[in-house]
Amino acid sequence: MVDSSPFRDAANVYDALIDWPKRLAHEAGFYRRRFSQASVHRLVDVACGPGHHAAMFHRWGLEVQGSDVSAEMISQAKHLHGTPEGLQWVVRSFEQPIEAAEAWDAAICVGNSLALAADHAAVEQVIRRLVAAVRRDGVIVVHVLNLWSFPDGPCRWQKCFRLTDPGGDRLVIKGVHRAGTRGFVDLLVSTCHDPPTLESESIPLLGLEAADLERCFVRAGCRSFEVWGGYAEQPYQRESSTDLIVVARR
C-alpha cells in the first residue's frame, strides 16, 4: 500500500536521516567564530527541527530559543534535550513574529528550512523577521542546500538504511532532485514486515539564489554579509558548491 500523505512520525525519520554528531562537529567551528565576532549570548533558532543545533549552542553557555511550526518536532526536541534553564522550545510558524523581552544577539534558520517557505515573497518576509529580531550589530545565519549543483533531471538517491524504533523496523530511502527552479527531497519508507507497506513523500524546495538572498538582507537593513559554499568556509560557487550559507550583520 502506498500512502502519499505526510509521514505520521516525520520527526523520527528526519532525525535518523542525519549523522548529527558528525554534522555538528563539522559545523561547530563556523558558528563559534561568528558568535565570538558578534559577542553572542542570546540566540533564536528558527525552524529548529529536532533541536540539535539549539542544544549544542546551549551547551556552549548561550541562552537559546528553538522554534518550529511542527508541534511534533518541538516534542521531539524536548524529549531529546529537555528544558533546562536557558533552553526554550516554542511552536511558531514563519508567518508569526519572533517575540522576545529583548532583542536577540543572533538568529539562525539553517538546514534547508528557508527553502521550505511557500514562495520567494515569503522568504523575504522570513529574512525581515530574522533581522528585526536581533539587536544592532547582531548576526543572522541562513543556510540552504545549493540546488544549482544538481543536474535538472532524475532523482539522485543519497541514503538507504534500516531504522529501528518503537514503530518497528523500516527501510528508509532518501534522495534529492531538481526540476527547473524547484528542488525536491524524496523519501520512501517501507515497513519490514510481511506484507510491507510503503509511505512516500516528495518535499518541494525553493531554488534560492545567493544574489536574491543578499538583496533581501540589504532591504531588511543589514549593513554587511558573507556568502559561503560550505561550513569549511569554501567560496560559494553556484555550479558546484554543496551549500549556500549567508551570514549577515545588522
Features:
28% helix, five-stranded mixed β-sheet, disordered N terminus
User: How large is the radius of gyration?
Assistant: 18 Å
The count of DSSP E runs of length 2 or more, i.e. the number of strands, is: 12
Which blocks of ≥5 consecutive residues have pLDDT under 50? 1-8
- Determine the strand fraction and express it as a percent band: 35-45%
Structure classification = alpha/beta
Please give the count of helices: 6
Mean residue pLDDT: 91
Q: Strand order within the widest sheet? A: 4-3-2-5-6-12-11
Q: Could you describe the largest sheet, including whether it forms a barrel?
A: 7 strands, mixed
Envelope shape: globular
Distance between the termini: 51 Å
Helix-residue proportion: 25-40%
Report on this structure:
- The termini are far apart.
- Mean pLDDT is 91; it is low at 1-8.
- Helices cover 28% and strands 36% of the residues.
- The longest helix has 18 residues, at 20-37.
- Strands 4-3-2-5-6-12-11 form a 7-stranded mixed sheet, with helices on both faces. A 5-stranded mixed sheet has the order 1-10-9-8-7, covered by helices on one side.
- A hairpin with a 2-residue loop joins strand 8 (168-179) and strand 9.
- The protein has helices at residues 10-17, 20-37, 52-59, 71-81, 120-133, 210-219; strands at 2-3, 42-46, 63-68, 87-91, 104-109, 134-145, 156-165, 168-179, 182-191, 198-206, 224-228, 243-249.
Briefly characterize the structure:
The chain has helices spanning 10-17, 20-37, 52-59, 71-81, 120-133, 210-219, and strands at 2-3, 42-46, 63-68, 87-91, 104-109, 134-145, 156-165, 168-179, 182-191, 198-206, 224-228, 243-249. With 250 residues, it is an alpha/beta fold. Helix 5 (120-133) packs across helix 6.
